[in-house]
Write a structure and sequence with these properties.
Layout lengths: L9 E5 L2 E4 H18 L5 H18 L3 H22 L19 H23 L1 H4 L11 H19 L5 H19 L2 H27 L10
C-alpha cells in the first residue's frame, strides 16, 4: 500500500509519459470534485477531500511545499464546506435546503485581495528558506517559492469564497489555475498540468452557471451576507 503513495510507482505510460497511481487518482478525483463544484453540487466537497489527501503526498515529492501545506487546509475546508452548504441559515437556504449563491461586497473583496498579497510575501519568504531551516525534512529548495505561495494564498481566498457560495470565487480560481498549469508542466507532473488547464475552462463554466443561478433568484429574496 505504501508504494501507492510513491510518485515513482507507475500506473501506466502514455505517449512516453509515466503516470503514477498517486498523480492519476489524485487528478481524477480532483477533476470530478471541481466539475461538481461548478454545478453547485454538494458532493464536490467529500470527493475533493479524497483528492487533496492524495495530492499532499504528490506535492511533497516534487518540492512544491506551499502546495503541500495547502492540502491540509483544503482537507479541513472540504469538510467545512460540506457542512456549510448543507446547513444554511433559514434566510440563506434555497428551496432544496442548500446554501444560496451570493456575491461578495466590493469592500470585502478589496480587503481579501490586499491581505492575500501581503500573505504571499510572508509565505514566499518562508518557503524560500525551508531547505535551510529544516534540511532533514526538505532536502531540496522550494520550486517557485513566491509564485507557488501566491497560488497557495489565493487558493485559500477562493476556498473561503466558495464555502460561502460567492460567485467571485470562480474568477479567483481562474487566475490560480492558469498559473498552476504553467508550474506543473515545468515540474514535470504533466497530467496534473493538463488537469489544471481544463480547470481554467471549468472555472469559466462555474462563473457562468453560478451567475445565472444567482440572477434567477427573486430580487426580494437575494441575500448579501455581510
Amino acid at each position: 500500500m505504501a508504494h501507492f503513495f510513491d510518485i515513482n510507482t507507475i500506473f501506466f505510460t502514455i505517449w512516453g509519459y509515466s503516470m503514477s497511481y498517486l498523480e492519476f487518482f489524485g487528478a481524477v478525483t480532483g477533476a470530478v470534485a471541481v466539475w461538481l463544484s461548478a454545478q453547485a453540487n454538494v458532493w464536490s466537497w467529500p470527493i475533493g477531500a479524497v483528492s487533496v489527501f492524495l495530492f499532499f503526498f504528490l506535492f511533497y515529492q516534487v518540492q512544491l511545499y506551499p502546495d503541500m501545506f495547502l492540502q491540509v487546509f483544503f482537507f479541513v475546508t472540504n469538510l467545512q464546506g460540506w457542512w456549510r452548504w448543507t446547513h444554511p441559515k433559514q434566510n440563506e437556504a434555497t428551496s432544496s435546503h442548500e446554501l444560496r449563491i451570493s456575491r461578495i461586497p466590493t469592500r470585502q473583496l478589496v480587503v481579501w485581495t490586499l491581505s492575500g498579497l501581503v500573505a504571499t510575501l510572508v509565505l514566499g519568504t518562508f518557503a524560500s528558506n525551508l531547505h535551510e531551516w529544516f534540511p532533514v525534512l526538505f532536502s531540496k529548495p522550494s520550486a517557485f517559492p513566491y509564485l507557488d505561495s501566491f497560488t497557495t494564498v489565493m487558493s485559500i481566498v477562493a476556498t473561503f469564497l466558495m464555502i460561502e457560495k460567492r460567485v467571485e470565487c470562480w474568477y479567483v480560481w481562474l487566475v490560480v489555475d492558469a498559473i498552476l498549469t504553467y508550474m506543473y508542466f515545468v515540474k514535470g507532473v504533466k497530467f496534473v498540468g493538463v488537469e489544471y488547464f481544463v480547470f481554467c475552462f471549468i472555472a469559466a463554466v462555474g462563473a457562468w452557471h453560478w451567475t445565472r443561478e444567482y440572477r434567477s433568484y427573486p430580487a426580494q429574496r437575494v441575500v448579501q451576507h455581510q
